[in-house]
Amino acid sequence: MKKFWIHAGTLIDGTGAEPKKNQAICVENGRVAAIEDFHGKNEEEWVDLSEMTVMPGMINCHVHSLSPVGISDEEENALTTMEKAWWGMKNAHDYIDSGVTFVRSLGSEKYYDLEMKKCIEEGKVVGPHMFCAGRVITMTGGHGWKSGLESDGVDECRKHARELLKHGVDLIKIMATGGVMTPGVEPGSAQLTMEEMKAAIDEAHKADRKTATHAQGTQGIKNALHAGIDSIEHGIFLDDECIDWMVEHGTYLVPTLAAPRCILDAGVEKGMKDYVLRKANLVVDAHIESFKKAYQRGVKIAMGTDAGTPYNFHNNSAFELELMVANGMKPMDAIVASTRNGADCIGVLKDYGTIEAGKVADIIAIEGDPLQDISCVRKVRTVYKAGEKLKG
């Protein structure tokens, strides 16, 4: 690949360090080769982003990459395989267009997310880097059972974890509690036991894969933590014991504040079912309080939106940053949550998440100063993925 330079007006490198003005970034063979003060252009190729804030491509650690958004359940259930593929391609493009260059897909019908990842890697579809969980492990009738692997007992959880690994998943997702979207289950109720989850987690860790869990209720969160989970998704009813454990063991929280908020903002007017609205109203305040307490106490936090849930659009990752800042997170910490911490949570920090020499050149340019107004992350004007210009 070609070598070129970027003249960055302001550089936020994703590490949490203070921004630097007037920087020159050398990109060669898809990676950052050097970063230095800008002293004028040499004779090599230059990209002028001197009026922009340059930062790493954002990482969304919780998406449902093929799920359509903005259509009814009935319309979604009637989609053909070809129509589902179209939605997957649209969603992949929406991530890139909104400055998201890496996603972690946490639950898909069959193994469609792995197929989309393959198409992106082969250049057939424009989209972000992907880590994919494929199908989730849930108890019979548990949250996400329609597309998940229903598993009861230690042996079934272990077997299904091995089955997922055979299909080539990048991580394993487990359902520790009920949730908002599945009828007949409650967000606060524990589902898979600690022993069942530990069997799946052990298989993942033996294969050098990370694990994530949908975990909303307190007891289910504790079960997952004691089973050795790597990230808690949602974490709606965290107590002090959960938070102490997460701080001590370095367990990530991916809050997905956007998910219930999007449901409630849509409301009855956009067809939200009564049971969904009831459960979203039940969790929304506790969700915010748990996030605030976790942040204040030093839990590691990575950005994820749960995109693919109702009216939670794939091009709206910025909403999660806005919600985090509105609820007490410093803007720089929100940027780190969506860059460096996202890469660390996924397990790819060696190559992604920050703009540093040697790392993959996933770089975006935005208008304005997100440290003064976090909504500036909506104003994405240029996107590079592995040094290839995909927008701008």
TrEMBL record:
The keyword Hydrolase applies. Transmembrane segments: none annotated. The keyword Hydrolase applies. InterPro entries: Amidohydro-rel (IPR006680), Metal-dep_hydrolase_composite (IPR011059), Metal_Hydrolase (IPR032466), Metallo-dep_Hydrolase (IPR051781), OTAase-like (IPR057744). It holds the Pfam family Amidohydro_1. Gene3D superfamilies: Metal-dependent hydrolases, Urease, subunit C, domain 1. One of its GO terms (molecular function) is hydrolase activity, acting on carbon-nitrogen (but not peptide) bonds. Keywords: Hydrolase. Residues 53-388 form the Amidohydrolase-related domain. This is Amidohydrolase family protein.
